[in-house]
């Protein structure tokens, strides 16, 4: 929509609304390409595929979060043992299976990926002033901001130590670049916070950096250790990147989904923090003048009561923005699935495809 | 003093006092080994030695702190352009001169070292809730804690990108290990905060990690790029490490030195934050029962008024703890100077020796 890019605010909104409407048709058409199934998609095949590998990865994680400074394993363990899904290292292990890789180098690298992720979660919790993470008190609440910042730093340095031990400059390049992009994305998100004029394009750029870059790196490095071709590296990068975007979109949808189960974090956190996520961006674009006034006030931080959150959820429902966000997620999910079509069919590819379907179908 | 290590508190103190007294004699003897000179030691030879190299390093720093997210260069620039001495990259450049290195690889690596340092300063300011840094408002005061944490992360990732671009796994190992040790040291210091029982041994371990590890890495990597022997690497590591300890000791002394000029940070910050630095450790060890009671209350955070700080400075003066801390610093300074005795004499070695003398003689 380049013609919209420099229009006046009203012009952009109208233009976006028209484009949205057109897109909804297109997206619905795409969604039927997602494998139709009689049962709900499940993570079980992915868990089975990666069980042995994840045992080794978990050993590395537990071993390398140790330190003679007792606060470090205590704080790191609070989060690492705290019910995380270890989705990113699991993707590295799965992608290694897809590549037919027989070695063990990816175990350390998958642990490094999880450490980078854990470091960003710890810093996120400080940045957002979170109360809950994975359904329990966030590390910053239990251990305070200073320790949480510093242990995040520690895990980040440990991640680099693990990569350096592996010794592949190509892997180091992929993961240091991804880390840099994540940090940029986090700052970008902070800048967009409480800015109602944030566009869907800008939002996609933010989640492409802060979430999808690490997913992409996690799967791509498996192709590197398996010494696969550049095309296969690119394919696994695309798989991880599109899955990461889809995953984040669904996460953002769930925060406003009145039918979704409780998530690990506080329901309505995004709303109270004035985070511009896609459900809000769409509700604002599709809203009446009066509704837009509400959103302007809410995102600016002047409407933080429970009744305001309830009204926000109502507006988002009225314009079907949770469902629209999920439709967008299915678009990227489909791209993720299609990106690995060139790999041999079999257990690994099926599990990776079904994991994508699971990521977008989940209600929690 | 192994006989003291497991004694009762009173026993330790007496033992330490005796040892201190014996040590003061020994230290004075060592101090005369520091080059005697008619003029005060100066940084001028070091600045002259590294001027050309630092021009290149500064270009890399300015170039690589850029980002499309405007907040990143704004915040990073606040600190980086804010009067920092760039001591660590300067040491890399000087050490490269000492090794007779003719290439330019160390410019990027020196910039990486400065980025790691800057990242830790940004996070330190958040951790300490600092008001001032280098004589002006700290980044966390101007930009807030969230942005300061995230831009610190960004600079840290940029440091790794620079190292990966250089491509030396040996350098990557040295700097990732140093970064991990720094993070551990920061957590260790946080754990020791407000703990009056922190020993001199523990304090030396903390500053060895949080300060000296990066000095050691900064000088050591010059030997790596210059393809010098393991012995020369070790020598430059020892130079940086001992200088780093000496430098931190003098910094800690200045915070209680009634005769020192104003430093860039708030005078008495260490006191109010309950940081256990050597002047306090010594004043506590050498103090009467009544004085110890004061220190226990002060370090626990119950004495934070200006008159309390004045009393603390008076007690530290009474037991000559600033001077004792400076004597300890001179010990490590001497070791730094002696460690590079095996390198050819000349401009580089002289400048590096005088820089060490300057570091311990300075009053600001």
From TrEMBL, chains A, B:
Which is an annotated Pfam family here? Answer: polyprenyl_synt
Alphabetized SUPFAM superfamilies for the sequence: Terpenoid synthases
According to UniProt, the reaction catalysed is: 5 isopentenyl diphosphate + (2E,6E)-farnesyl diphosphate = all-trans-octaprenyl diphosphate + 5 diphosphate
PROSITE patterns of this UniProt entry?
A: POLYPRENYL_SYNTHASE_1
Does the entry feature the keyword Transferase, yes or no? yes
Q: Which UniProt keywords apply?
A: Magnesium, Metal-binding, Transferase
Record-linked InterPro entries: Isoprenoid_synthase_dom_sf, Polyprenyl_synt, Polyprenyl_synt_CS
Q: What class of enzyme is it?
A: transferase
UniProt-listed CDD domains? Trans_IPPS_HT
Q: Name one GO biological process term.
A: isoprenoid biosynthetic process
* A GO term for molecular function: metal ion binding
Q: Which domain of life is it from?
A: Bacteria
Supply the EC number(s).
2.5.1.90
Q: Which residues cross the membrane?
A: none
Q: Which cofactors is this protein said to need? A: Mg(2+)
As for family, the record states:
Belongs to the FPP/GGPP synthase family.
The UniProt function text for this chain reads: Supplies octaprenyl diphosphate, the precursor for the side chain of the isoprenoid quinones ubiquinone and menaquinone.
The protein's name: Octaprenyl diphosphate synthase
